[in-house]
Amino acid sequence: MAVYKADAIVIRSREYGEADRLITLFSREYGKLEAIAKGVRKPKSTQRGGTQLFTYAEFLLYRGKTLDTVNQAQPRESFIHLWNDFDRTIAASGIAELLDISTTREQPEPELFTLTLSFLFLLKHLDPYLAQVSYALRLIDLQGYLPTMDECLGCGKDLTGEQAFLSSEAGGFLCSLCKNNRLVKALNPGSLALMSQLYKGELAKLDRLRWNKKMREEILGSLCFFCEEKFERKLQAWRQGSELWGK
Ligand SMILES: [Zn+2]
Hints:
By secondary structure, the chain is an alpha+beta fold. Helix content is 35%, strand content 23%.
């Protein structure tokens, strides 16, 4: 398998050497991959478009000893809308970043691939941060966390109408009695109810959901905390977004 095909989204891109880029791909077939895109920082490079961040393309990759190389990148969708609006760029970066830190290389996760692609399309019209939250909840679910949002993981108490506490150590929501001395983030009943809708709601109906500034800060803040603790990495784009949530 010296040369292989991959249907993939560019989820990270950084400068490498004189004119190259080291890109992280999330592919339908193999999960996360890393490859060098040679010469793409030169203005005349034909592969420039296909290797841009967020681009969905059909890649032809060459298997190297240490690093794979991009032979060809045929763009299928470049998601221009993600670059025309700052909030959409930040939300898409948050999605890509969470996908990157929560997955290991070369582990096929086709469901997660489809989910990611769907949300990059949804970012065309959805409130970008609502989309980011809904994506994050569904990703966490696919990874096996957040088994339930309606009841306390400790004692099984129904959390409807109650203040709930998100704990990464417990892997989900706790009631006020079960949280004990754990590090938690508190969520008011309205925020918890909205999270539940963002988690389970049909994708086509997500644009009906609304939130206010307080709910947005609470939900994004608690999810950022949960994921950073769970995956033991900082979420830079999420933190950058949080500076904007207050506005
Ligand atoms: Zn409890």
